[in-house]
């Protein structure tokens, strides 16, 4: 398929030493995604790399994937699951990036390409680097960390609460999904009593899974579980329910991925697993096993019915951090480095331009203060970087790192705090924001990262050739497909859908197009789902999409404004109405695939429920064909609501 070919040619595949040496001889900058065979390359960044390549259009920029298992010089990268990108210029290593951090990756590509051009054009000297994370000393420290934690930390499990052990396995960690899964765990009402990242040794994996020693997959399981970092969590429930073990097992779904996708499509294993061995998460089978597993990972755990007054029990929580425009432009990476070193996980990240109205809404309690005009000017002067930070005691810890809100006081009393370090000369407003309390943190996080659902439709023109590529990209962008239905619209249904446009000249053409084959209707869930899905689709007119958003779905898969592949709700209210209209209150709709024919009964059911499914398509065609010289068919009518 076209999408697959484009991906294949974007990154050269390097699978042996000879190909590696040929790659290093390539003139220009080569960005290499180093991976292990069992987990594959980092798919999450493919769209970004294609976007960078198209925008820069530079013959000196190359991308490649390299399999560490079969290339001798990459031997030390084996067993390290975190996505790793190596930058080579003139056959020498010039930069290293770990993690699928899209903004940082894009920035580094642009900067290192510029540096390489200077070397080639002006004969400058390359700044060759070493991957310090691979030094023996640091490797030793990493290996000793779990033991240190075991010796120093105590895990307190209240006697009134049941608990279970959860593991986010190496496959999910390797694909950068750990933080996303953790947020979903918390959103589902589970309380994280303890959290540790560690890589199991082969002996530990054998010991932990000894009850599976007689199974055929045991050796593969041991190798897999010791191949890279896992996240170990102790879970309870906020309500102190005695049913946490079965609740967690229900939430993660069946161990068999196909069964999970078929019977529990909203489960973690259905969303993040790829096959039975690589099924993303683990859960204790019963309370006895939970006790054994807790003792295995946290030997110093204890239960307590009362927490001492001078020893507050801390749980993983979230807080909002804002990096205001002035320092977001100049010091973002330095501040992010401080955040990581302080033990925070960046659970959510978003760069946004705020309007005056949004700033007034967010800082409503400060509007009457004397400093508000300066704050308003600062917050609207450029993009703000919003972060949801997670760790134990996140709110208080972030406030401590920030220091006093008054810049002069911060400089006098706490010169090492972030607000003092990153104060901007002649600016009375501090450049970093933190939530004041847990309650305030959740409100503020919801302001910048609202949880949303949106309706997505894969139209008939894209179903046969591009459906799988579109679905793959949807999941790769972090959307959860919480509902899915394939249906065929009868002519009567389509005419009813478009009854408001019955007198328009394009009515019959539109109806015939939408009736010619099946549509796939999906409910997508994610923070800012409506906005992100619309950005992913691109402009309604594919010609405009190819000019302004060449990586969008419509730019790549659509033929014209009628056959434009996909649809998305224009706003949250529209999404709610359409989802309710299509899926109703039924939570057990059968998940159909292209191999499952639509029965008459199912079509009749769809006819009763789906009277407005393609409303926006009509608006699209109407917009493109009305004699309006100002629009010329280039304005997305869904944005005009």
From TrEMBL:
<dbReference type="GO" id="GO:0005737">
    <property type="term" value="C:cytoplasm"/>
</dbReference>
<dbReference type="GO" id="GO:0006183">
    <property type="term" value="P:GTP biosynthetic process"/>
</dbReference>
<feature type="binding site">
    <location>
        <position position="554"/>
    </location>
    <ligand>
        <name>ATP</name>
    </ligand>
</feature>
<dbReference type="InterPro" id="IPR036249">
    <property type="entry name" value="Thioredoxin-like_sf"/>
</dbReference>
<feature type="binding site">
    <location>
        <position position="506"/>
    </location>
    <ligand>
        <name>ATP</name>
    </ligand>
</feature>
<dbReference type="InterPro" id="IPR017937">
    <property type="entry name" value="Thioredoxin_CS"/>
</dbReference>
<feature type="domain" description="Thioredoxin">
    <location>
        <begin position="1"/>
        <end position="115"/>
    </location>
</feature>
<feature type="binding site">
    <location>
        <position position="540"/>
    </location>
    <ligand>
        <name>ATP</name>
    </ligand>
</feature>
<feature type="compositionally biased region" description="Basic and acidic residues">
    <location>
        <begin position="598"/>
        <end position="612"/>
    </location>
</feature>
<dbReference type="GO" id="GO:0004550">
    <property type="term" value="F:nucleoside diphosphate kinase activity"/>
</dbReference>
<dbReference type="GO" id="GO:0001726">
    <property type="term" value="C:ruffle"/>
</dbReference>
<feature type="active site" description="Pros-phosphohistidine intermediate">
    <location>
        <position position="282"/>
    </location>
</feature>
<feature type="region of interest" description="Disordered">
    <location>
        <begin position="591"/>
        <end position="641"/>
    </location>
</feature>
<dbReference type="Pfam" id="PF00334">
    <property type="entry name" value="NDK"/>
</dbReference>
<keyword id="KW-0479">Metal-binding</keyword>
<dbReference type="GO" id="GO:0030027">
    <property type="term" value="C:lamellipodium"/>
</dbReference>
<dbReference type="GO" id="GO:0046872">
    <property type="term" value="F:metal ion binding"/>
</dbReference>
<feature type="active site" description="Pros-phosphohistidine intermediate">
    <location>
        <position position="567"/>
    </location>
</feature>
<keyword id="KW-0963">Cytoplasm</keyword>
<dbReference type="InterPro" id="IPR034907">
    <property type="entry name" value="NDK-like_dom"/>
</dbReference>
<keyword id="KW-0131">Cell cycle</keyword>
<feature type="active site" description="Pros-phosphohistidine intermediate">
    <location>
        <position position="433"/>
    </location>
</feature>
<dbReference type="InterPro" id="IPR013766">
    <property type="entry name" value="Thioredoxin_domain"/>
</dbReference>
<dbReference type="GO" id="GO:0005634">
    <property type="term" value="C:nucleus"/>
</dbReference>
<protein>
    <recommendedName>
        <fullName>Nucleoside diphosphate kinase B</fullName>
    </recommendedName>
</protein>
<dbReference type="InterPro" id="IPR051766">
    <property type="entry name" value="TXND_domain-containing"/>
</dbReference>
<dbReference type="InterPro" id="IPR001564">
    <property type="entry name" value="Nucleoside_diP_kinase"/>
</dbReference>
<feature type="binding site">
    <location>
        <position position="534"/>
    </location>
    <ligand>
        <name>ATP</name>
    </ligand>
</feature>
<comment type="function">
    <text>Major role in the synthesis of nucleoside triphosphates other than ATP.</text>
</comment>
<dbReference type="GO" id="GO:0006228">
    <property type="term" value="P:UTP biosynthetic process"/>
</dbReference>
<feature type="binding site">
    <location>
        <position position="459"/>
    </location>
    <ligand>
        <name>ATP</name>
    </ligand>
</feature>
<comment type="similarity">
    <text>Belongs to the NDK family.</text>
</comment>
<feature type="binding site">
    <location>
        <position position="564"/>
    </location>
    <ligand>
        <name>ATP</name>
    </ligand>
</feature>
<dbReference type="Pfam" id="PF00085">
    <property type="entry name" value="Thioredoxin"/>
</dbReference>
<dbReference type="InterPro" id="IPR036850">
    <property type="entry name" value="NDK-like_dom_sf"/>
</dbReference>
<dbReference type="GO" id="GO:0006241">
    <property type="term" value="P:CTP biosynthetic process"/>
</dbReference>
<keyword id="KW-0539">Nucleus</keyword>
